[in-house]
ATP-dependent RNA helicase ddx4
Amino acid sequence: MDDEDWDTEIPDHASGGLGKGGLTASQPRFQALGSLPARANETSCVFSQSIKPDAGNDPSRGFQCMQDSGWPTGSGGVSGKQNGEEKPTGGFGSRRSFGNRGPSGNLFEERKSTGFGRVQYREVIAPFHFNGVAVEEGGDDEDNQSHTGFFRRGGMSNGSDARRGGRGPTRGGRGGYGLFTNNDCEMNDARPHSGFKREGFGASSGDSANRGRGGFRDRGGYKGSNEEVIGGAGKSMWKSDGDKEGGEPAAPKVTYIPPPPPDNEDAIFAHYQTGINFDKYDNILVEVSGHDCPAAILTFEEAGLCQTLSKNIAKAGYSKLTPVQKHSIPIVLARRDLMACAQTGSGKTAAFLIPILEQMMQDGITATQFKEQQEPECIIVAPTRELVNQIFLESRKFAHGPVVVYGGTQTIHSIRQVMQGCNILCATPGRLLDIIGRERIGLSKLRYLVLDEADRMLDMGFGPEMKRLISSPGMPPKDKRQTLMFSATFPEDIQRLAGEFLKTEYLFVVVGQVGGACSDVQQTILQVSQYDKKDKLVEILNSIGDKRTMVFVETKKKADFFAALLCQENIKTTSIHGDREQREREEALCDFRSGRCPVLVATSVAARGLDIENVHHVINVDLPSTIDEYVHRIGRTGRCGNLGKAISFFDPLADSAVAQPLVKVLADAQQEVPSWLEEIACSSCAVGFSNPRGNMFASVDSRKFSQGFQSKEHSGGFVASNTSAADESWD
Ligand SMILES: Nc1ncnc2c1ncn2[C@@H]1O[C@H](COP(=O)(O)OP(=O)(O)OP(=O)(O)O)[C@@H](O)[C@H]1O
């Protein structure tokens, strides 16, 4: 299953003229790309902005390798910076910043849009009752924010700031923890919730004084669109509206339009410094298996990249290749299929982006015209919304015009983005399939299919979607496309499934050990019983101070609970999990990245891929049920040669199954293994109580061990991650 809304949110006939054939009517008047750099030297690398001929001054998105003369600075209705400094003033933004509504910071709701046809649909939502008081939907506009914060009375304010209405980490719904039930909260989001009684806990986030966005949301139980969690431990299972059980109210339509990406060069090329151990990456053993492997390159110069791409790589702060890049870049340039496994934070994203872009430039791929159906040359899929967005932002360092679409946002917005021109598409699987199903994306020109976090994309959670994708009409067969898979973990069983997607002669690059933890993360395992976790967490966070810390828990409820608890302890905290609306999730990440909330409580939805500067600590309040998940979680720190620390609470009553693989991961990363943990691992091993995934790390290419690699036995089903208690992990 996927992370997406399979909604019929905006059927063609009801899309305000944006259905097929109805485009012109409500088509935005896009801002001209006057400041797009001229393509002086490298015309072949222009995937230029398409222009719909009959659309007046309507240049659509371009796809260009960026020239160092710069990015368009954005003319038109957007006055510049996002993130609360200079606010957009409406009108059509620079390039694709259409639809921006008034001065609302990062919020771009079409219902308040000052552009893009001024669609004004506003959800009509009945007031709901909270603590016996009818609360009106306040909308999300800034006007309401000054009074929509939670804990207005008697609530928590973090520290000394009078942060009334600060954006909060939790949405309150779900009750049951008995916290703060006497608080008289107000909320700005009164849409129907899905059956959880709101007991009113929540937490202020320590947000800056006048943000006042009501972080205290209701709506527990579904994830923003017309879908809900129906189970799935270790992964989310969604079903559509029609399948809802128990007469739950339909989820509200998703109206969220994410803010446009930054347009100024500083923001585009923002990066953090490599750490003291970056050079030590060179010492990691790399194994490449498969026939006729091209030689690794040692420097970016050796890759022979075009000048513009090289300049942008330098601007991105990349001067030296990481091992996975040394090996992957020539392999992709040689047009081979690739499965690459390298430790977290070691630059896998650039390892596929750079050679794909180079090839597209070499091939002279030109911009697609504004069309109702786009046919991208490259599709990159990843399991979470935040991750695809991150990949999109990374790709913008190197080229103009990639497009990102993901769930939790307005479908029609995604479609509009695509229709403006789309050579490279970053997408979550559900939204991708949705748009393919609406015939807005055709696959016949696809040359590159990238699965980031590929083991996750192929397991039971997303495997069926991936299968649907490769059997979608027009999808070139595997020998006619290049398929690339990247992850830090690649269990053998998943490797076998991958054969269905890859050419037989694919190459397999392993940097270090498959599934190994990043050696720059100092791992500590503490024996902490379930009942002591709260106090221990607070104690540790108090000793850490303001350093950025991600706290992982296994369920959404617990994420709410711990976020609230920490705020009550005056620890500036926000949270991210699958029950939060997409807007809230993005706000939470933004607050965490900016340091406004140095603590982020998360479920495994934030475990993979997220690349956030200066995350000093990861704390696993609950250990995940699979060791792969553990490796990804702790990999949010210690990235790119920087050092990090991970502390995990081990509750023998709950975590014995993971003891054995945990010992292995610790030992492989030369970490101290507590003797009590070894004992538990031994005894669980003796009684045959071990996590199967713990034995699944392939030290090398699984083809070496498996004669029946592509046998029928493996081609059918998808592999379940070991699942236990999570009510969601992925979104
Ligand atoms: N050659 C390089 N030199 C300097 N920094 C780099 C280089 N390559 C990548 N980076 C930076 O390293 C960080 C980690 O890269 P990336 O997110 O691609 O890691 P990853 O291997 O995909 O991690 P994960 O397994 O967690 O997804 C990013 O901030 C990226 O910009």
About this structure: Residues 1-63, 68-246, 688-699, 707-731 have pLDDT under 50 and may be disordered. The longest strand covers residues 521-527. The first helix runs from residue 23 to 26.
